[in-house]
Structure formats: structure tokens, C-alpha cells
Amino acid sequence: MSQYPRDEFDKVPETSTRQGVHRERLIPARSSGVGLIITVGVLALLVGLAAYFVLPRLGIGAEGNASPAASETPAAEQSESPSDSPSDSPSPAPSPSSTPSASPSETPEPTPPAPVADRTQPVVVLNASGISGLGAGISTRIGADGWTTAQVGNWAGTPLQTSVIFYNGEAQLANAEELSALLGIPTLSESPEFSNVTVVAGPGFQ
Question: Which InterPro entries match (predicted)?
Fold first, then answer.
């Protein structure tokens, strides 16, 4: 026991929560957890602010932010390309009124068919070569090709240097050309003095 006499301070129950001024006030154990949570929250806030303001300046995350803009550029170009490139669009077909039409005067006229030889027209055969029987041989030769001989005789005109086929007008030209090819006589002469196509066999006729 204490050697000092008891006073009013000794009347405080031992279970009382009151403490003397000389004793240190103890912090409850549960208050330490709240302080830890507050500290962690402040640190997390500081880290978030640093990531928001500092990291973009350092270039971190710039590629991720730039990719949406880059992906939008082709879409914008594609949307503008049809209107910006008129050369790719099909050109309008010319209207029928703008197409030049050929006038009737410019239409080419059909070429008339070549005249055909008429073997029903009679042929006169004259011998100017001095060879006896030559006129009859020519008559037989053209008769085998379907021609009709109207007369066979001797040439009474100016002496000729070669064989000649005479014809009168365009109506007899086709017959004269056909006989020229058949007999091998290239010389043709138009003359109104002959009423029929006349074959005159001159010197050297074969």
C-alpha cells in the first residue's frame, strides 16, 4: 500500500475510462485502418492525375489516340472519291439528235450489174487474112460456144494488120468482149457502120 493518505483522486474506479493528464491518450486500433484507406486513395488520385497530364506529353498512348483519326481518313476519301473523279463515271451516250446522219445525196448509188452477153444476137465473121477457109473455122468455133453466125465472108475494106472485132453501141459491147475472150482478139472497135457484131480475122490469127 501507498504511504500517502488517500485523497479525492483515489476515489476514481479502476474500470473507469478516465485517465490522468499525465497519461498518453491511446488511439483506438480501428482508426489505423481508416487512415490507411485514405492514404491509398490519395496516392491513387495522384497517380491518375499524373497519367492524365504527364503521359500524353511524353508521347505514351499517342499511337492509340491517333489511330481513330487515321482510320477515318480513308472513309472520308472514299465518300468523296465518286464526286471528285468525274473521269471514272461513265460518259453519257450521245443523243440520237446529236449523231450526224447521212443526207440522201451522200448515199452511194448501187453499182449497176455488168451487162451479160446475149448469144441470141447473130455474129458476122469476115476473113481478112488471105487464108482460105479461116472464116468457116471461126464460125464453127463460136457456134460450139452457143453463138449464131449470120454471115461468113471475106473482108472487102482497107487491109488490116491485125484481127479486129467491130461493135455498134453499148448494147453490143458485152457480146464483143465475150467473143474477144473466146477468140483471143484483144482489139475492139466501135463503129456505127456495122449493124451486128463483126469478127474480122486479120494476119496472124490463130
Answer: LytR/CpsA/Psr_C (IPR027381)
